[in-house]
Protein backbone atom coordinates (compact mmCIF):
# COMPACT_ATOMS: atom_id res chain seq x y z
CA UNK A 1 0.00 0.00 0.00
CA UNK A 2 1.15 3.52 -0.42
CA UNK A 3 0.08 6.97 0.64
CA UNK A 4 -1.05 8.09 4.05
CA UNK A 5 -2.92 5.82 6.41
CA UNK A 6 -4.90 6.59 9.52
CA UNK A 7 -4.85 9.77 11.63
CA UNK A 8 -1.77 11.95 11.16
CA UNK A 9 0.67 12.19 13.99
CA UNK A 10 1.16 15.76 15.13
CA UNK A 11 4.33 16.24 17.09
CA UNK A 12 7.67 17.50 15.88
CA UNK A 13 11.03 16.13 14.92
CA UNK A 14 14.16 15.26 16.82
CA UNK A 15 12.44 15.00 20.14
CA UNK A 16 14.68 12.44 21.67
CA UNK A 17 13.77 11.79 25.26
CA UNK A 18 10.48 13.76 25.21
CA UNK A 19 7.48 12.20 26.93
CA UNK A 20 5.33 10.01 24.71
CA UNK A 21 1.92 11.00 23.38
CA UNK A 22 -0.97 8.79 22.32
CA UNK A 23 -2.36 9.86 18.96
CA UNK A 24 -2.93 13.45 20.09
CA UNK A 25 0.78 14.01 20.55
CA UNK A 26 0.20 15.20 24.13
CA UNK A 27 2.39 13.95 26.93
CA UNK A 28 0.74 11.37 29.10
CA UNK A 29 1.52 9.45 32.23
CA UNK A 30 3.45 6.24 31.75
CA UNK A 31 1.05 3.27 31.62
CA UNK A 32 1.01 0.75 34.42
CA UNK A 33 1.62 -2.89 33.50
CA UNK A 34 -2.08 -3.52 33.98
CA UNK A 35 -3.03 -0.80 31.46
CA UNK A 36 -0.49 -2.06 28.99
CA UNK A 37 -1.60 -5.66 29.18
CA UNK A 38 -5.15 -4.66 28.41
CA UNK A 39 -4.35 -2.67 25.30
CA UNK A 40 -5.45 -4.59 22.20
CA UNK A 41 -2.59 -5.45 19.87
CA UNK A 42 0.15 -4.64 22.37
CA UNK A 43 1.04 -8.22 23.14
CA UNK A 44 1.46 -8.93 19.44
CA UNK A 45 3.98 -6.06 19.11
CA UNK A 46 5.84 -7.17 22.22
CA UNK A 47 6.06 -10.71 20.90
CA UNK A 48 7.29 -9.38 17.55
CA UNK A 49 10.07 -7.41 19.28
CA UNK A 50 11.01 -10.44 21.36
CA UNK A 51 11.21 -12.70 18.31
CA UNK A 52 13.26 -10.18 16.34
CA UNK A 53 15.63 -10.13 19.31
CA UNK A 54 15.88 -13.93 19.13
CA UNK A 55 16.69 -13.80 15.40
CA UNK A 56 19.12 -10.88 15.46
CA UNK A 57 20.80 -11.29 18.83
CA UNK A 58 20.74 -15.07 19.16
CA UNK A 59 20.60 -16.23 15.51
CA UNK A 60 17.50 -18.33 16.18
CA UNK A 61 15.63 -19.55 13.13
CA UNK A 62 12.25 -17.93 12.56
CA UNK A 63 10.85 -21.23 11.33
CA UNK A 64 11.48 -22.77 14.73
CA UNK A 65 10.20 -19.72 16.62
CA UNK A 66 6.96 -19.61 14.64
CA UNK A 67 6.26 -23.34 14.39
CA UNK A 68 2.58 -23.94 15.21
CA UNK A 69 3.32 -26.84 17.58
CA UNK A 70 6.75 -26.12 18.98
CA UNK A 71 7.27 -22.40 18.38
CA UNK A 72 7.77 -19.64 20.94
CA UNK A 73 5.11 -20.05 23.67
CA UNK A 74 4.31 -16.32 23.74
CA UNK A 75 3.49 -16.43 20.05
CA UNK A 76 1.45 -19.60 20.33
CA UNK A 77 -0.73 -18.13 23.07
CA UNK A 78 -1.86 -15.26 20.82
CA UNK A 79 -5.06 -15.44 18.80
CA UNK A 80 -4.63 -16.62 15.22
CA UNK A 81 -5.13 -13.09 13.86
CA UNK A 82 -2.42 -11.67 16.09
CA UNK A 83 -0.10 -14.56 15.25
CA UNK A 84 -0.52 -13.70 11.58
CA UNK A 85 0.21 -10.04 12.32
CA UNK A 86 3.38 -10.94 14.24
CA UNK A 87 4.59 -13.06 11.34
CA UNK A 88 3.88 -10.26 8.87
CA UNK A 89 5.77 -7.76 11.05
CA UNK A 90 8.73 -10.12 11.40
CA UNK A 91 8.94 -10.89 7.70
CA UNK A 92 8.84 -7.19 6.74
CA UNK A 93 11.18 -6.11 9.51
CA UNK A 94 13.78 -8.66 8.40
CA UNK A 95 13.31 -8.33 4.65
CA UNK A 96 13.68 -4.53 4.80
CA UNK A 97 15.96 -4.39 7.81
CA UNK A 98 18.56 -2.20 6.11
CA UNK A 99 16.00 0.31 4.87
CA UNK A 100 14.25 0.44 8.24
CA UNK A 101 17.55 0.96 10.03
CA UNK A 102 18.41 3.83 7.68
CA UNK A 103 15.00 5.48 8.12
CA UNK A 104 15.41 5.32 11.89
CA UNK A 105 19.02 6.55 11.81
CA UNK A 106 18.06 9.56 9.68
CA UNK A 107 15.76 10.73 12.44
CA UNK A 108 18.09 10.33 15.36
CA UNK A 109 20.25 13.18 16.60
CA UNK A 110 22.90 10.70 17.62
CA UNK A 111 23.28 6.94 17.26
CA UNK A 112 21.32 4.76 19.65
CA UNK A 113 23.25 4.05 22.85
CA UNK A 114 25.30 0.89 22.88
CA UNK A 115 23.45 -1.93 24.57
CA UNK A 116 20.12 -0.51 23.38
CA UNK A 117 19.19 -3.69 21.53
CA UNK A 118 15.68 -3.90 22.90
CA UNK A 119 15.00 -0.24 22.06
CA UNK A 120 16.19 -0.90 18.50
CA UNK A 121 13.87 -3.91 18.20
CA UNK A 122 10.87 -1.87 19.38
CA UNK A 123 11.70 0.81 16.80
CA UNK A 124 12.07 -1.76 14.03
CA UNK A 125 8.73 -3.36 14.87
CA UNK A 126 7.03 0.05 14.78
CA UNK A 127 8.75 1.19 11.58
CA UNK A 128 8.06 -2.11 9.79
CA UNK A 129 4.34 -1.61 10.36
CA UNK A 130 4.43 1.99 9.15
CA UNK A 131 6.58 1.38 6.07
CA UNK A 132 5.46 -2.07 4.98
CA UNK A 133 2.10 -3.05 6.45
CA UNK A 134 -1.47 -1.91 6.29
CA UNK A 135 -1.58 -0.93 9.96
CA UNK A 136 -2.78 2.58 10.95
CA UNK A 137 0.25 4.71 11.74
CA UNK A 138 -1.27 5.86 15.02
CA UNK A 139 -1.61 2.26 16.22
CA UNK A 140 1.93 1.40 15.14
CA UNK A 141 3.35 4.43 17.00
CA UNK A 142 1.20 4.14 20.13
CA UNK A 143 1.85 0.45 20.57
CA UNK A 144 5.58 0.92 20.02
CA UNK A 145 5.59 3.57 22.74
CA UNK A 146 3.63 1.26 25.02
CA UNK A 147 6.07 -1.60 24.24
CA UNK A 148 8.99 0.65 25.18
CA UNK A 149 7.25 1.72 28.39
CA UNK A 150 6.65 -1.88 29.35
CA UNK A 151 10.29 -2.83 28.85
CA UNK A 152 12.56 -1.66 31.68
CA UNK A 153 15.52 -1.51 29.26
CA UNK A 154 13.70 0.76 26.83
CA UNK A 155 11.24 2.69 29.02
CA UNK A 156 13.36 5.82 29.39
CA UNK A 157 13.51 6.12 25.60
CA UNK A 158 9.78 5.97 25.01
CA UNK A 159 9.79 9.66 24.02
CA UNK A 160 12.42 8.94 21.41
CA UNK A 161 10.36 6.03 20.07
CA UNK A 162 7.37 8.32 19.81
CA UNK A 163 9.26 11.09 18.03
CA UNK A 164 11.17 8.93 15.59
CA UNK A 165 8.20 6.83 14.55
CA UNK A 166 5.94 9.87 14.17
CA UNK A 167 8.51 11.43 11.87
CA UNK A 168 8.81 8.24 9.84
CA UNK A 169 5.02 8.10 9.58
CA UNK A 170 4.89 11.71 8.44
CA UNK A 171 7.87 11.81 6.10
CA UNK A 172 8.85 8.42 4.74
CA UNK A 173 7.60 6.72 1.61
CA UNK A 174 5.92 3.38 2.11
CA UNK A 175 5.84 0.22 0.11
CA UNK A 176 5.41 -0.08 -2.80
CA UNK A 177 6.60 3.51 -3.40
CA UNK A 178 9.52 3.03 -1.08
CA UNK A 179 12.48 2.14 -3.31
CA UNK A 180 14.30 -0.25 -1.03
CA UNK A 181 17.97 -0.55 -1.99
CA UNK A 182 18.87 -4.25 -2.40
CA UNK A 183 22.45 -3.71 -1.25
CA UNK A 184 21.29 -1.90 1.87
CA UNK A 185 19.07 -4.85 2.76
CA UNK A 186 21.71 -7.52 2.22
CA UNK A 187 24.05 -8.09 5.19
CA UNK A 188 27.74 -7.71 4.34
CA UNK A 189 28.71 -11.36 4.75
CA UNK A 190 26.04 -12.46 2.28
CA UNK A 191 26.71 -9.65 -0.15
CA UNK A 192 30.42 -10.52 -0.23
CA UNK A 193 29.66 -14.18 -0.88
CA UNK A 194 27.26 -13.31 -3.69
CA UNK A 195 29.70 -10.90 -5.34
CA UNK A 196 32.58 -13.39 -5.05
CA UNK A 197 30.59 -16.13 -6.73
CA UNK A 198 28.27 -14.33 -9.13
CA UNK A 199 29.76 -10.87 -9.72
CA UNK A 200 28.26 -7.60 -8.51
CA UNK A 201 25.58 -7.25 -11.18
CA UNK A 202 24.14 -10.68 -10.53
CA UNK A 203 24.55 -10.20 -6.78
CA UNK A 204 22.46 -7.02 -6.98
CA UNK A 205 19.78 -8.92 -8.90
CA UNK A 206 19.72 -11.65 -6.32
CA UNK A 207 19.64 -9.23 -3.39
CA UNK A 208 16.82 -7.37 -5.15
CA UNK A 209 14.85 -10.59 -5.56
CA UNK A 210 15.19 -11.21 -1.83
CA UNK A 211 12.94 -8.20 -1.28
CA UNK A 212 10.02 -9.80 -3.10
CA UNK A 213 7.46 -12.00 -1.43
CA UNK A 214 7.75 -15.68 -2.33
CA UNK A 215 4.78 -17.23 -4.11
CA UNK A 216 3.04 -20.28 -2.67
CA UNK A 217 3.73 -23.44 -4.64
CA UNK A 218 1.83 -26.69 -4.29
CA UNK A 219 2.77 -30.13 -5.54
CA UNK A 220 -0.38 -31.85 -6.80
CA UNK A 221 -0.83 -35.58 -7.09
CA UNK A 222 -2.28 -35.09 -10.57
CA UNK A 223 -4.00 -32.62 -12.89
CA UNK A 224 -1.96 -29.46 -12.27
CA UNK A 225 -3.97 -27.52 -14.89
CA UNK A 226 -7.26 -28.45 -13.20
CA UNK A 227 -5.97 -27.50 -9.76
CA UNK A 228 -4.51 -24.27 -11.10
CA UNK A 229 -7.95 -23.30 -12.41
CA UNK A 230 -9.71 -24.35 -9.23
CA UNK A 231 -7.31 -22.49 -6.93
CA UNK A 232 -6.69 -19.45 -9.12
CA UNK A 233 -3.03 -20.20 -9.77
CA UNK A 234 -0.95 -21.38 -12.68
CA UNK A 235 0.50 -24.77 -13.45
CA UNK A 236 4.29 -25.11 -13.51
CA UNK A 237 5.66 -28.23 -15.15
CA UNK A 238 3.93 -31.53 -14.59
CA UNK A 239 3.20 -31.44 -10.87
CA UNK A 240 3.35 -27.93 -9.46
CA UNK A 241 0.81 -25.14 -9.10
CA UNK A 242 1.85 -21.60 -8.21
CA UNK A 243 -0.48 -19.34 -6.24
CA UNK A 244 0.35 -15.66 -5.98
CA UNK A 245 -1.63 -14.86 -2.86
CA UNK A 246 -4.25 -16.59 -0.78
CA UNK A 247 -6.79 -15.49 1.79
CA UNK A 248 -6.34 -17.28 5.11
CA UNK A 249 -4.38 -20.43 5.78
CA UNK A 250 -3.58 -22.97 3.04
CA UNK A 251 -5.48 -25.58 5.04
CA UNK A 252 -8.68 -23.75 4.05
CA UNK A 253 -8.09 -24.29 0.34
CA UNK A 254 -9.95 -26.76 -1.79
CA UNK A 255 -8.21 -30.14 -1.91
CA UNK A 256 -6.25 -29.78 1.33
CA UNK A 257 -8.47 -32.00 3.47
CA UNK A 258 -8.80 -34.51 0.65
CA UNK A 259 -5.02 -34.74 0.46
CA UNK A 260 -4.81 -33.78 -3.20
CA UNK A 261 -1.72 -31.60 -2.81
CA UNK A 262 0.93 -30.39 -0.41
CA UNK A 263 2.86 -27.15 -0.09
CA UNK A 264 6.26 -27.49 -1.72
CA UNK A 265 8.30 -24.95 -3.65
CA UNK A 266 8.46 -25.89 -7.31
CA UNK A 267 12.25 -25.82 -7.03
CA UNK A 268 12.21 -28.14 -4.03
CA UNK A 269 10.31 -30.67 -6.13
CA UNK A 270 13.16 -30.99 -8.65
CA UNK A 271 15.58 -33.33 -6.84
CA UNK A 272 13.09 -36.23 -6.69
CA UNK A 273 12.40 -35.85 -10.39
CA UNK A 274 16.06 -36.51 -11.08
CA UNK A 275 15.50 -40.15 -10.08
CA UNK A 276 13.20 -40.74 -13.03
CA UNK A 277 10.74 -43.60 -12.63
CA UNK A 278 10.87 -44.82 -9.03
CA UNK A 279 7.76 -47.04 -9.08
CA UNK A 280 8.47 -50.21 -7.11
CA UNK A 281 11.99 -49.09 -6.19
CA UNK A 282 13.34 -49.06 -2.66
CA UNK A 283 14.30 -45.46 -1.97
CA UNK A 284 15.79 -44.00 1.21
CA UNK A 285 14.89 -40.38 1.90
CA UNK A 286 17.52 -39.23 4.39
CA UNK A 287 16.89 -35.94 6.18
CA UNK A 288 13.27 -36.41 5.16
CA UNK A 289 11.10 -34.24 7.39
CA UNK A 290 8.66 -32.59 7.02
CA UNK A 291 8.31 -34.89 4.05
CA UNK A 292 7.70 -32.95 0.85
CA UNK A 293 10.07 -35.21 -1.03
CA UNK A 294 8.92 -38.35 0.80
CA UNK A 295 5.41 -37.55 -0.43
CA UNK A 296 6.64 -37.11 -4.01
CA UNK A 297 8.47 -40.44 -3.90
CA UNK A 298 5.54 -42.28 -2.31
CA UNK A 299 3.07 -40.73 -4.76
CA UNK A 300 5.29 -41.95 -7.61
CA UNK A 301 5.06 -45.51 -6.28
CA UNK A 302 8.43 -45.84 -4.54
CA UNK A 303 8.84 -47.96 -1.42
CA UNK A 304 10.18 -45.20 0.76
CA UNK A 305 12.15 -45.30 3.98
CA UNK A 306 12.08 -41.78 5.43
CA UNK A 307 14.68 -40.98 8.08
CA UNK A 308 15.12 -37.80 10.09
CA UNK A 309 16.82 -37.09 13.37
CA UNK A 310 14.10 -34.80 14.66
CA UNK A 311 11.26 -36.62 16.40
CA UNK A 312 8.91 -33.64 16.17
CA UNK A 313 9.59 -33.21 12.46
CA UNK A 314 9.05 -36.93 11.86
CA UNK A 315 5.70 -36.55 13.65
CA UNK A 316 4.81 -33.81 11.18
CA UNK A 317 5.96 -35.96 8.29
CA UNK A 318 3.64 -38.74 9.45
CA UNK A 319 0.70 -36.35 9.78
CA UNK A 320 1.38 -35.03 6.30
CA UNK A 321 1.53 -38.52 4.80
CA UNK A 322 -1.67 -39.48 6.60
CA UNK A 323 -3.55 -36.49 5.15
CA UNK A 324 -2.17 -37.30 1.72
CA UNK A 325 -3.05 -40.99 2.11
CA UNK A 326 0.49 -41.97 1.22
CA UNK A 327 2.65 -44.61 2.86
CA UNK A 328 6.31 -44.73 3.85
CA UNK A 329 8.40 -46.42 6.50
CA UNK A 330 9.43 -43.69 8.94
CA UNK A 331 12.48 -43.75 11.18
CA UNK A 332 13.77 -41.27 13.72
CA UNK A 333 17.54 -41.23 13.84
CA UNK A 334 20.87 -39.82 12.73
CA UNK A 335 22.06 -40.57 9.20
CA UNK A 336 25.53 -41.13 10.64
CA UNK A 337 24.20 -43.98 12.81
CA UNK A 338 21.89 -45.48 10.18
CA UNK A 339 22.65 -49.08 9.30
CA UNK A 340 20.07 -50.49 6.87
CA UNK A 341 19.95 -54.26 6.47
CA UNK A 342 20.47 -54.01 2.74
CA UNK A 343 21.31 -51.22 0.33
CA UNK A 344 18.64 -49.19 -1.45
CA UNK A 345 18.03 -48.85 -5.17
CA UNK A 346 18.24 -45.11 -4.72
CA UNK A 347 19.02 -42.63 -1.95
CA UNK A 348 18.08 -38.99 -1.59
CA UNK A 349 20.09 -36.79 0.74
CA UNK A 350 18.34 -33.44 1.17
CA UNK A 351 20.99 -32.18 3.50
CA UNK A 352 20.74 -29.49 6.16
CA UNK A 353 22.23 -26.31 4.70
CA UNK A 354 22.47 -22.57 5.09
CA UNK A 355 19.19 -22.20 3.15
CA UNK A 356 20.53 -19.11 1.39
CA UNK A 357 18.48 -20.11 -1.65
CA UNK A 358 15.28 -19.55 0.33
CA UNK A 359 15.75 -16.00 1.61
CA UNK A 360 12.65 -14.71 -0.16
CA UNK A 361 10.60 -17.07 1.96
CA UNK A 362 12.88 -17.02 5.01
CA UNK A 363 14.39 -13.53 5.32
CA UNK A 364 15.80 -14.41 8.75
CA UNK A 365 18.40 -16.62 7.04
CA UNK A 366 20.37 -13.52 6.06
CA UNK A 367 20.77 -12.75 9.78
CA UNK A 368 20.92 -16.18 11.39
CA UNK A 369 23.65 -17.55 9.12
CA UNK A 370 27.13 -16.32 8.40
CA UNK A 371 30.30 -17.32 6.63
CA UNK A 372 31.53 -19.65 9.37
CA UNK A 373 28.15 -21.37 9.54
CA UNK A 374 28.17 -21.99 5.78
CA UNK A 375 31.54 -23.73 6.06
CA UNK A 376 30.39 -25.77 9.06
CA UNK A 377 27.32 -26.91 7.14
CA UNK A 378 29.38 -27.75 4.06
CA UNK A 379 31.61 -29.98 6.20
CA UNK A 380 28.55 -31.67 7.68
CA UNK A 381 27.09 -32.21 4.21
CA UNK A 382 30.24 -33.96 3.04
CA UNK A 383 30.14 -36.26 6.05
CA UNK A 384 26.45 -37.04 5.49
CA UNK A 385 26.95 -37.56 1.75
CA UNK A 386 29.87 -39.90 2.28
CA UNK A 387 27.79 -41.91 4.76
CA UNK A 388 24.73 -41.92 2.50
CA UNK A 389 26.88 -43.30 -0.32
CA UNK A 390 27.22 -46.56 1.63
CA UNK A 391 23.45 -47.12 1.51
CA UNK A 392 23.22 -47.26 -2.30
CA UNK A 393 23.40 -50.54 -4.20
CA UNK A 394 25.97 -50.82 -7.00
CA UNK A 395 24.51 -49.15 -10.09
CA UNK A 396 22.03 -47.27 -7.93
CA UNK A 397 21.55 -43.54 -7.76
CA UNK A 398 22.30 -41.01 -5.08
CA UNK A 399 20.81 -37.53 -5.29
CA UNK A 400 22.33 -34.83 -3.14
CA UNK A 401 20.28 -31.68 -2.82
CA UNK A 402 20.17 -28.62 -0.70
CA UNK A 403 18.83 -25.08 -0.93
CA UNK A 404 22.04 -23.12 -0.54
CA UNK A 405 23.36 -20.75 -3.19
CA UNK A 406 26.90 -21.08 -1.89
CA UNK A 407 29.25 -23.21 -3.95
CA UNK A 408 30.97 -24.38 -0.78
CA UNK A 409 27.76 -26.28 -0.07
CA UNK A 410 27.41 -27.38 -3.69
CA UNK A 411 30.23 -27.77 -6.18
CA UNK A 412 32.87 -28.04 -3.45
CA UNK A 413 31.03 -30.83 -1.60
CA UNK A 414 30.45 -32.76 -4.84
CA UNK A 415 34.10 -32.34 -5.83
CA UNK A 416 35.45 -33.51 -2.47
CA UNK A 417 33.02 -36.42 -2.46
CA UNK A 418 34.06 -37.58 -5.91
CA UNK A 419 37.70 -37.44 -4.97
CA UNK A 420 37.05 -39.62 -1.95
CA UNK A 421 34.68 -42.01 -3.73
CA UNK A 422 35.98 -43.29 -7.06
CA UNK A 423 33.07 -45.74 -7.13
CA UNK A 424 30.80 -42.81 -7.98
CA UNK A 425 30.62 -40.68 -11.06
CA UNK A 426 28.51 -37.64 -11.75
CA UNK A 427 25.62 -38.53 -13.95
CA UNK A 428 23.89 -36.45 -16.61
CA UNK A 429 20.34 -35.23 -16.13
CA UNK A 430 17.97 -35.47 -19.05
CA UNK A 431 17.61 -31.76 -19.73
CA UNK A 432 14.42 -31.90 -21.80
CA UNK A 433 11.75 -31.57 -19.17
CA UNK A 434 13.48 -29.71 -16.38
CA UNK A 435 14.92 -27.15 -18.80
CA UNK A 436 11.68 -25.24 -18.36
CA UNK A 437 12.69 -24.93 -14.74
CA UNK A 438 16.11 -23.60 -15.59
CA UNK A 439 18.26 -26.58 -15.04
CA UNK A 440 21.65 -26.23 -16.59
CA UNK A 441 24.38 -28.71 -17.03
CA UNK A 442 28.10 -28.57 -16.50
CA UNK A 443 30.60 -31.13 -17.66
CA UNK A 444 33.66 -31.39 -15.49
CA UNK A 445 36.97 -31.23 -17.26
CA UNK A 446 38.31 -34.60 -18.25
CA UNK A 447 41.21 -34.54 -20.73
CA UNK A 448 40.38 -37.87 -22.37
CA UNK A 449 36.77 -36.93 -22.76
CA UNK A 450 37.55 -33.39 -23.98
CA UNK A 451 39.82 -34.77 -26.71
CA UNK A 452 37.00 -37.02 -27.87
CA UNK A 453 34.32 -34.38 -27.99
CA UNK A 454 35.31 -30.81 -28.61
CA UNK A 455 31.75 -29.65 -29.16
CA UNK A 456 30.68 -30.82 -25.76
CA UNK A 457 33.63 -29.09 -24.22
CA UNK A 458 32.55 -25.80 -25.78
CA UNK A 459 29.10 -26.55 -24.47
CA UNK A 460 30.55 -26.80 -21.03
CA UNK A 461 31.86 -23.24 -21.05
CA UNK A 462 28.62 -21.94 -22.46
CA UNK A 463 26.91 -23.70 -19.60
CA UNK A 464 29.21 -22.05 -17.10
CA UNK A 465 28.20 -18.63 -18.38
CA UNK A 466 24.61 -19.74 -18.47
CA UNK A 467 24.91 -20.81 -14.87
CA UNK A 468 26.07 -17.34 -13.91
CA UNK A 469 22.85 -15.97 -15.29
CA UNK A 470 20.73 -18.28 -13.23
CA UNK A 471 19.84 -17.78 -9.65
CA UNK A 472 20.67 -20.92 -7.93
CA UNK A 473 19.50 -23.54 -5.60
CA UNK A 474 21.52 -26.60 -6.37
CA UNK A 475 20.61 -30.21 -6.71
CA UNK A 476 23.15 -32.90 -7.36
CA UNK A 477 22.72 -36.25 -8.97
CA UNK A 478 25.40 -38.80 -8.50
CA UNK A 479 25.23 -42.37 -9.77
CA UNK A 480 27.11 -45.24 -8.26
CA UNK A 481 28.93 -46.82 -11.16
CA UNK A 482 32.28 -48.50 -11.69
CA UNK A 483 35.21 -46.06 -11.78
CA UNK A 484 35.02 -43.96 -14.90
CA UNK A 485 37.05 -41.18 -16.46
CA UNK A 486 33.94 -39.35 -17.63
CA UNK A 487 32.84 -36.91 -15.01
CA UNK A 488 29.68 -35.01 -15.74
CA UNK A 489 28.61 -32.49 -13.22
CA UNK A 490 24.98 -31.57 -13.26
CA UNK A 491 23.65 -28.65 -11.50
CA UNK A 492 20.09 -27.59 -10.90
CA UNK A 493 19.84 -23.88 -10.45
CA UNK A 494 16.62 -22.01 -9.98
CA UNK A 495 14.79 -19.56 -7.82
CA UNK A 496 13.22 -20.98 -4.78
C1 LIG B 1 16.24 -29.44 4.46
S1 LIG B 1 15.41 -30.26 5.74
C2 LIG B 1 14.69 -31.59 4.88
C3 LIG B 1 13.45 -31.24 4.09
C4 LIG B 1 12.76 -32.48 3.55
N1 LIG B 1 13.62 -33.31 2.77
C5 LIG B 1 11.54 -32.14 2.73
O1 LIG B 1 11.59 -32.15 1.51
O2 LIG B 1 10.49 -31.86 3.32
C6 LIG B 1 16.74 -31.03 6.56
C7 LIG B 1 16.35 -32.08 7.58
O3 LIG B 1 17.54 -32.76 7.95
C8 LIG B 1 17.37 -33.25 9.26
N2 LIG B 1 18.72 -33.63 9.72
C9 LIG B 1 19.77 -32.82 9.95
N3 LIG B 1 20.86 -33.54 10.30
C10 LIG B 1 20.48 -34.83 10.30
C11 LIG B 1 21.14 -36.06 10.59
N4 LIG B 1 22.42 -36.09 10.95
N5 LIG B 1 20.44 -37.21 10.49
C12 LIG B 1 19.13 -37.19 10.13
N6 LIG B 1 18.44 -36.06 9.85
C13 LIG B 1 19.10 -34.90 9.93
C14 LIG B 1 16.71 -32.09 9.97
O4 LIG B 1 16.03 -32.54 11.12
C15 LIG B 1 15.76 -31.57 8.89
O5 LIG B 1 14.48 -32.12 9.05
TrEMBL record:
Residues 1-42 are annotated as: Disordered. Signal peptide: none annotated. It comes from the Bacteria. Residues 307-334 form a coiled coil. S-adenosyl-L-methionine binds at residues 287-293, 308, 334, 350. The active site is at residue 403. This is MFS transporter. It comes from Jiella pelagia. The lineage of its organism: Bacteria, Pseudomonadati, Pseudomonadota, Alphaproteobacteria, Hyphomicrobiales.
Amino acid sequence: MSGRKGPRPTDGAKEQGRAPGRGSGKPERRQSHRDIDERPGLQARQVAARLIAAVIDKQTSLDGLTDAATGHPHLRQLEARDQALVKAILTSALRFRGTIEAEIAKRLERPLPSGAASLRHVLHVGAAQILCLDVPDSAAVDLAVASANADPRAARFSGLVNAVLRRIAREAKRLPDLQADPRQNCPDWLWNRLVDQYGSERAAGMAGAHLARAPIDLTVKSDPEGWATRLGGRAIGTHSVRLVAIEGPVSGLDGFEAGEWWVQDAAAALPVRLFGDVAGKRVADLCAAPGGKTAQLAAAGALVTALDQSASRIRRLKENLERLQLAAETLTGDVMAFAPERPFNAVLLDAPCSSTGTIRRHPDVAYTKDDAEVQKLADLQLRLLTKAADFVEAGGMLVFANCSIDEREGEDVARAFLQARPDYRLDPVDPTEPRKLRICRLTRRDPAHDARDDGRRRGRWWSRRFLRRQVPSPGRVISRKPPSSLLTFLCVRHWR
